[in-house]
Amino acid sequence: MGKNTNVILNVLKVIGYLLLILLILVVCGIISGIAICFIQTLLFVPKSYMLWTFNSPEKYLIFIVILIIDLFIYYLFIDRKLNRSKTPSLLARILRKCKVPIALFIIVLFYVLITSVTVFTNDKMIDRTFYHPTPTEYKYSDILSVKAGVYGNRIPWRQGQRPVLLYHHPERRQKN
């Protein structure tokens, strides 16, 4: 009976450890998203804004940031503890050999995430993208039309897919 108790305690210890790591991964993902939003509001959102959004395709890059954070946490907390042999794991070898490219990729990824923002104020729309960092401003009086809507007509909780709010860049009125 003593052996079974030790096995059960070890299994519970491993499950508790994995749940703690999962909690850390989720918290790090949430913190990175909040940090990016905070930096965006500090740098690009004026005080008199009505609404600001991430630009559409770039906002999904946050999942790559979360994946990278997850890999580092896995390496720091799990891979080092599980791999007690003298030969490093595949993840450890990749991280050691590719430190500079990974760091450059993370810097570029954060640049893309932080600079991809559209702000709506009382009198204009300010659009920034990572490939065009100077803002493009559209006054509402110069805009002929804006195509906006909700993509997807499924009920989210039934089909597992949420509708997405979208807008296309406005058509500018030609100045005579």
Summarize this structure briefly:
By secondary structure, the chain is of the alpha+beta class. Helices cover 53% and strands 22% of the residues.
What features would you describe in this structure?
This protein is an alpha+beta fold and 176 residues long. The protein has one domain. The chain is 53% helix and 22% strand. The protein has helices at 2-44, 62-82, 90-97, 99-115, 156-159, and strands at 49-54, 117-121, 124-129, 132-139, 143-145, 148-151, 164-167, 171-172. It has a four-stranded antiparallel beta sheet. It has a two-stranded antiparallel sheet with strand order 5-8. It has a two-stranded antiparallel ribbon with strand order 6-7. A hairpin with a 2-residue loop joins strand 3 (124-129) and strand 4 (132-139). The N and C termini lie far apart (91 Å). The mean pLDDT is 76.
